[in-house]
Amino acid sequence: MNKLVLLLLVVSLLGALGSTASSYCDSEVPEAAGTVCNGTESKYLASSQDSCTDTANNSTLVEAETVNITSNSRIYPAYTAAPAEEGNYPAIVLIHSFRGFEPGYQTMVNRMAEEGYVVIAPFWQAYSDSPSDTEVEALIRNSTAYLETRDDVNSERLGLTGFCAGGRYTMLFLPQIEEFESGVAWYGFPYMGGSEIQPDIPASLIDQLDAPMLIIHGTRDQYSNITDIYRYAGELDAADRYFELKVYQGEPHGFMLTEEGELSESFVAQDAYGEMITFFDRTLNNSTM
User: Fold this and answer.
1) For residue 140, how many other CB atoms are within 10 A of its CB?
2) pLDDT tens digit at each of 289 positions of the chain
3) What secondary structure does DSSP assign to 85-107, as a single string?
4) Sign of CA pseudo-dihedral 154, 158, 163, 166
5) CA distance 122 to 223
6) Residue 114: enclosing H or E segment and its boundaries?
7) Were 212 and a residue from 52, 197, 242, 246 both cysteine, which residue would form a disulfide, CB within 3.0 to 4.6 Å?
8) Cα gap 167→218, rounded to integer Å
């Protein structure tokens, strides 16, 4: 009799565990590794589902999910968040750093959605740590195409932002993808390129840039020297291209995230985040430029 009771308890426990596991999209979530600029590794999560409600977002103001973006016959997971209230909102494509889609980026995407933006962050390293510029461009274009299919997106108000390698992609593709009305480049690399997989140098495309750009950088950036940013700003000015530059004295590369990959709550990080939102508010929400 005791054995029978014990068996029933085990079966009941297994059933409860199975029910809990099935609530997380009914499938396993694979891990994919990215490589930071200094060679260390970080990890991000990529859902294999077409659409999966993100259980980590507890805000009643935001609806978040992971969607799949098809690009060049491959499927790329992308984290998305949008205001829960029905409406027609501006949208932003966010390109994470070379370290992958760390938890801090998810927090940032959710906060941007609370600010009134639909945001998509494609996992551009899903198949390679260092994909070609052509692959990344196709993924960004397809992410933009996805946003344009959503009823809650104003397709005439699209922005682009990126960090580290994503900052370079912002500098590189803002001049080339006409759907974007503005962009924010975080500690990017304006003179990186000239290789087989990265043939174009962002600074060489300045003459094609029509959208306003905000550049955010730190003076102690050990990977993208501030002198290159000043040089890039000078070339933008000489070409009469509208830009804004926000430089934080003493800040290193990647200052928006902590070493653990969480969104920093430092004064500088909060101020820089506010600069981005204010810029997008002016150029996308209430555009006068």
Assistant:
1) 28
2) 444 434 443 334 333 333 332 222 222 223 333 333 433 333 333 333 333 434 345 568 999 999 999 999 999 999 999 999 999 999 999 999 999 999 999 999 999 999 999 999 999 999 999 999 999 999 999 999 999 999 999 999 999 999 999 999 999 999 999 999 999 999 999 999 999 999 999 999 999 999 999 999 999 999 999 999 999 999 999 999 999 999 999 999 999 999 999 999 999 999 999 999 999 999 998 645 5
3) S---EEEEEEE--TT-S-HHHHH
4) positive
5) 24
6) helix 103-114
7) 242
8) 13
CA angle, corner 36, sides to 275 and 58, nearest 5? Answer: 55
pTM above 0.85, yes or no: no
With a CB cutoff of 8 Å and minimum separation 6, the contacts of 16 are: none
Instruction: Find, among 245, 123, 233, the residue nearest to 186 by Cα.
Output: 245
Q: Which tokens sit at 129?
A: 């740590």
Q: Which of 200, 198, 169, 199 is nearest to 185 (CA)?
A: 169
Q: How far apart are CA 108 and CA 242, in angstroms?
A: 26
